[in-house]
Amino acid sequence: MRLRVLAASVLFSFALVVPATAHAITNPQIPGLQVALRAHGYYRGPIDGIAGPMTASGVRGFQRHAGLVVDGVAGPLTRGRLGRLGRPLFGQRRLLMRGSVGWDVSVLEFFLRRRGFHPGHVDGKFTETTRQAVLRYQRRHRLGVDGLVGPQTLASFGVRGAVAQPTRSTVRGHAHSIRGLLSYWARYYGITTSLVKALAWQESGFQQDVRSKAGAEGVMQVTPQTWSYVEMVLLGRKVTHDANGNIHVGVAYLRQLLHEFDFDLRRALGGWYQGPWEVRAHGLYPQTRVFVRNVLALRRRFS
């Protein structure tokens, strides 16, 4: 994760810290935030899933009005104050149906609209129009056609939650070395161990005390923004800031990128280095292609 001089290098951070440059920050949860802010009168822009200046300004304005710390971060306290439309995050609720209201419904409606299945207004309310859009989507994607948005339909949108978390005792047995932790979390998330080790070696040479000028740190060179995204969206809990936590966060994020790019390894590694939004918008930059080639070469060495 080294191209952090680009604004998009914040990747899928849920912390809405808007950089000075013109690039936008994307996050699969952002439509839910925009709908909730709009309902409270703090956002007048389009529901586009892009955390640009208007979205961040809306968060700060709402926080100021609600008597919260004005940091531009849509954390649990801010989302709680947003009311019914401020929760739960997309993927946390296992079943959405007609009558459901919330942040996750807003995200669902946004995804349906972006894919050409018109759910009516993107407003966080699962109406009959929403249900009909879900039915059309399910037929097109050969899912169970019932108008209910359960785990199978949720997973089809590509926003994957992490698997159940291990106990401390299961991790402790692997904590004797960086290599042991890399192997443990690779197996835990179902990723080839050689790929995880290759990425970690390319980023830091397995050194936990490495820190980049942009603040990326540890074995996996995780930025604070990516760490926040993994905690809040993928894991739903805080992770300790040590070697074990750094590797856990890095591998969980790599797993998300693999799913997001349909297991296209080159694009997933490109998303790691350059940011997934930039990969979709511009393809792999020359510097990114070099990074990807290096990781793939190292993967053969670690096989």
Walk me through this protein's architecture.
With 303 residues, the protein is mainly α. α8 (178-188) packs parallel to α11, α10 packs across α11 (243-260) and α12 (265-274) packs across α13 (276-282). 50% of the residues lie in helices and 1% in strands. A two-stranded antiparallel sheet has the order 1-2. Residues 4-25 have low confidence and may be disordered. It is built from 14 helices and two strands, in the order βαβααααααααααααα.
Please give the number of β-strands: 2
Helix content: 40-55%
Our measurement of the CA-to-CA distance between the termini, rounded to an integer number of angstroms, reads 23 Å
Largest β-sheet summary = 2 strands, antiparallel
Tell me the strand percentage band: under 5%
Radius of gyration: 20 Å
What are the low-pLDDT stretches, counting only 5+ consecutive residues below 50? 4-25
Protein structure class: mainly alpha
Give the topology string: H per helix, E per strand: EHEHHHHHHHHHHHHH
Overall pLDDT: 84
Q: Helix count?
A: 14
Shape: globular
**How would you write the strand order of the largest sheet?**
1-2
Question: What are the defining features of this structure?
Answer:
single chain, 303 residues, mainly alpha, two-stranded antiparallel ribbon
